[in-house]
Amino acid sequence: MRSRVKIGRRKPIEEPEIIVIPMIDVMMFLLFFFMVASLAMAVQNGIPVNLPKASTGKDDRSQTVTITLQPDGSVYLNTAKIKLDQLAPKLKELGVTGRTLVTLNSDDKVPYGTVVSVMDEARQAGVQAFAFATNRQ
Questions:
Q1: How far apart are CA 52 and CA 13, in angstroms?
Q2: In what order do the strands lie in the sheet with 65-69?
């Protein structure tokens, strides 16, 4: 028996296609997931203190610099413990301007004079806007 070999046209090889629609779906899901996850990770800078109560306060979520005052006299800039005389240079290092809002987390047992001293040091660094953190009644 003779074997026959077909000689002729070959089938053209089909080029693979990239299907983009499923990739777009996956990318949209990842974008949504990371947006929701980043909102859950928002943390307020500062050291926990017992804040005084105020019924007229409102929430301000644009805070960038937090100064915390403890009853024992310790001062924290965001979460770093500093001495009072270091406050103005440290604020300048952070690049605060007159438009920067500084939030004061002062324990309700901190003397008024200490709060005024801290505000004076911050003003020497160029801070003009202060917000006092309180708990709602």
A1: 77
A2: 80-82, 75-77, 65-69, 101-106, 129-132
Q: How many residues does the chain have?
A: 137
User: Following CA atoms 20, 21, 22, 26 in sequence, which dihedral angle do they give, to the nearest 10 degrees?
Assistant: 100
Taken in order of first residue, the domains within the chain and their CATH numbers are: 65-132 (3.30.420.270)
Between CA 88 and CA 98 the distance in angstroms is 13
pLDDT classification of 28: cutoffs 50, 70, 90? very high
Residue 69: burial class (beta carbons within 10 Å; 0-12, 13-18, 19+): buried
Residue 85: CB atoms within 10 Å: 10
pLDDT value of residue 62: 46
For residue 99, give the amino acid letter.
Answer: R
